[in-house]
Protein 1
Amino acid sequence: MNAQEVKNLIRGDRLTLSRILSQVESQSEAGRQALEALFPFTGRAHKIGITGAPGAGKSSLVNALTRQLRRQPDAPKVAIIAVDPTSPFSGGALLGDRVRMPDLQRDPGVFIRSMATRGALGGLAAATEAFSQVFDAAGYDIILIETVGAGQAEVEVVNLAHTTIVVDTPGTGDDIQAIKAGILEIADILVINKADRPGADQSVRYLQAMLEMGYARSGTAGHHASETVNSVAAEKPAEPWLPPVLKTIAIESQGIEDLLGAIQAHRKFLLESGTWQVKERQALQKAIQRAIAQNLMDFWEAKITPELFEATLQSVVERKLSPESAAQYLLQTIQGL
Amino acid sequence: MNAQEVKNLIRGDRLTLSRILSQVESQSEAGRQALEALFPFTGRAHKIGITGAPGAGKSSLVNALTRQLRRQPDAPKVAIIAVDPTSPFSGGALLGDRVRMPDLQRDPGVFIRSMATRGALGGLAAATEAFSQVFDAAGYDIILIETVGAGQAEVEVVNLAHTTIVVDTPGTGDDIQAIKAGILEIADILVINKADRPGADQSVRYLQAMLEMGYARSGTAGHHASETVNSVAAEKPAEPWLPPVLKTIAIESQGIEDLLGAIQAHRKFLLESGTWQVKERQALQKAIQRAIAQNLMDFWEAKITPELFEATLQSVVERKLSPESAAQYLLQTIQGL
């Protein structure tokens, strides 16, 4: 990526942006160089993660929220990253793109990109982080990261975000499952979407009760961000953030104004409490650690021969050597670690 | 873990088993040594992963399947690993255990263990693998691994399994979301649970059509296991496995006999096609790689001072250095990599 390309990207050229994203996604050397060149221009965008069970209406909510954002007086530029677990049937991105609205696709202040990443564990988080940096450098004010489910990988993805929105639908009884899935503790804002369905108010009350229970039990705030502030930058006790529980009907754009209000309030909270800075620092720390792990593994893979690895694996298959002993043996063999 | 303890475990002593599992879960040195001592006794158990969206009734299905297994003439010993993403509200395991049936808890041939693992990426898969090895050495014939969701971490977990069962409920329209979540391609057996609800037959037909579409598109079999066989042990084309789609009503134990039949048929397929051996080899390969990565990171962390890391991180926070450059700088500093 040369200086002209950097200039073009920062000036908002969409073709350059598309090309850089593809380079980054394919983990090519060009992509790596682009991230290097763009890194000094990052650190400004508000990253917002949206997660929740399949069928909760996350895509519709992202669409409605984007329109609402674009209608604001300052008309912030919005990037949407749709993280789809890869499917050989859909190609991952296919179905994700179909539900996007044409008006958003035409808006020059909106950029939508699906991502279907298979591969190394941590690949999803690393790729999302890389995309965010490109959008950040390209002047996108808001980056919406939409991800399915509440598994560990999704938690990693939303950990990149400044603000995490967890979307659920009105439910009876299955709510207990949502809590089992451990999504409550990652939420900065909870949304009951499809709130015209029966049981919406009960769901809101139920979630509020659960949140207050966690809040009471932890002594201060049952909430990771505040805990982080207390432990890392403990100059004064941080104002706790109790996640609001909102009702929306995304396909009718109902409740979206309140949702935007909650997002803005959370941003204000982050900045005033110092949590924003702590989160930035943690994200960069993780990025360094990921890069170290990758460099170490690359170094190791270059040193070891396939024959040696296969022979060692065979001993493990035959139960003569445990995986741990095999690892230690291989590392000793290549460099006396 | 001394020789007497190994003997006790293999003889079926539940107290020893509990203690070893706790040692393994806490990643203590004792746990590491136990895995070393037990590894030669592993490689026999049939590992079965059960996954699907929250509310699909996975726990009920696991309960019903366990009872059915225990009623077989050979009464196989069954271990249940319930993988719960950690929640600070529930403590993760709490809710998971509540739905287990007392009759199973009393059965000396059944051992139930919940796991709520936070921590390093890959921790869930590594811990599940470690638990499986302990149960395997302790003579459990069947290991049922129940996991919530279809995120990347869950896919990692079920990748450890020989047979993966994906559970869904009758649905209309949301099915497209299930496919988005990429769960079809990991399924060896698909189950529509709560099949007394409306739409069960449509859901079955829909999933069958999707499977056959994927099957047709991939030329041979739209199925990862078969592809693996073809690419890794390609002596003769493997018989393809088209995942059956079954209906169950788990809480009434309906359809469980057919499900057990499908599991046994899949086991037979795995052994006769050579896929079983390929999966074992892949799992051990991953275990070696995980151990190598862990050893490398431990080595690195022991070498670098907190002061050096903090100073480097500060340069990254100030955008003077990118995370990649920071990683390379740190690695060069400690050993000239």
Protein 2
Amino acid sequence: MNPLILEKEEIINLLDFSEIINVVEKSFVDFSAGKALMPVPQDIIFEEFKGETHVKSAYVKGGKYYCIKIASGFYNNPPIGLNSSQGMMILFEAKTGIPKCILLEEGALTDYRTAAAGAVAAKYLANKDSENILVVGTGNQAKLQVEFLLKIFPIKNIFVWGRSEGKARTYCDYILNKQISANLQIINKIEEAENLDLDIIITATPSRMPLVSSKLIKKGNHVNAIGADMPGKQELDERIIRNAKVVTDSTAQCAKSGELQHSLKSGIMKLDKVYGELGEIISKKKIGRENLDEITVFDSTGLGVQDLAIANYVFDKYCDMEKIK
Amino acid sequence: MNPLILEKEEIINLLDFSEIINVVEKSFVDFSAGKALMPVPQDIIFEEFKGETHVKSAYVKGGKYYCIKIASGFYNNPPIGLNSSQGMMILFEAKTGIPKCILLEEGALTDYRTAAAGAVAAKYLANKDSENILVVGTGNQAKLQVEFLLKIFPIKNIFVWGRSEGKARTYCDYILNKQISANLQIINKIEEAENLDLDIIITATPSRMPLVSSKLIKKGNHVNAIGADMPGKQELDERIIRNAKVVTDSTAQCAKSGELQHSLKSGIMKLDKVYGELGEIISKKKIGRENLDEITVFDSTGLGVQDLAIANYVFDKYCDMEKIK
């Protein structure tokens, strides 16, 4: 039997925020318990087309499926009306290698699983009554991070900063369309945020230099550092990392390509000062937030097990609804 | 627009031996000219299921597509009536990353491009009037290697050796069904082949120790060494390699996983004694066979550019026939 082919729209229509949080949460536990097989990603760079393709594969021992994700970014696409991301995830049966489902998700599932990871991290690390959010960035991920947080925190104020004021406005229009009760406010200069009473700070930009100064981070804050996921990328002042309880998705991977890379390189912090991995906190091997005043940072680089978890979730849900398999 | 999905049977019906030889021949030239991007393959091993999956990607600079192949071997499949190989190739547009065609080929295209490589090598390295072939192995690849050679040589006698006499008989039935004029003969002991007057020797087994003794190889012989494509695999006595003009698909890859690995490891031969790559001979940078008496060996490990070439060929041919694209 041929694999099931699911298109982006069908996939997005199936997604439920709380369900995604649950499956992604479980994937971090599997990863930190050493149950994941995730070979080194394969990268192809197409210099002449400003394009890149990355193959990430993952399997959790004992699981029914393994997932191969082909993620791409072709930066000449948007001017000609195409999505820069054209990727797909493929689920294979682990017992036989038979391809069961091809998810033509064009990067959407990566966006969702990444935002869900931010929500899981905030659930374990931010103060329970967090009301005020600052989001740095106005792209897709900045939108989804906030949408997910709205599901689990009593958010009252959302502050937005982006390099382009126009994009910040579009961002607000998008969030307001979601019929939320929180107030939305654009910050013109990121320094202005230093005077705000914030609870959670989300950074979700492709920046290659620190955007968030350590002056911005106060007692009790939690930071979801999402953007830095490759060597060279950075959003936070290194002093933020040094002064915080740092929790990673994968410490080994963050040391190479997360925020952590910079504080390790500059020597401002040593690897053994990293508090732990999110999976260790979820599985109660380590305690999450210990008091109201702690500053916590979640360094997110993205794991193949998150791809596997969300692809598996979509496939199962589709089959349940259609009563197939 | 969604990618075109092609199933194994459709794909096989499209294949023409001479056309495949041409596209595979060109891929070797591209590779040896340094035009190929081929990242290190990604491997996942499923110990509990006796399974393995390998991701091989390739792009030739200036080309229209890149190819990602997901090849698998699940060795518990045959007893339950499933093919051990369940792989696919996916063609993406290089300019945009858009997936254009998913070829559900279950390993068949790998079989064909490998056999075509053998035919290309023999075309440049074997004596033109080669009439007598010995094929060591009775599997799929052993069948296809002979079918391809029949297209370009005036074959009169085919000698077959396999560990299982039953499989050798099945092999003969298969070849005889192809309505050929050559004689077919099973060799009971491989040593018997030492007394034969052979022109081309094909080895296509998963052996991990030398099957073919140096006594078997005579002046003027050409050997297609196909089976050894991973560390540990070996079909030829190392002395055969030492005494022959050795041509590889990729010298770097053969040194790691081809026949070459063993003669290099034992020190019987140095890397600089390798004559060259098939692509260099096709493109006339190096001469192929120089006289009737030379002994030549083609060490084949399989290249991503061959996958790209055959997938691209199938897709183009399908589109031409259906007048789409």
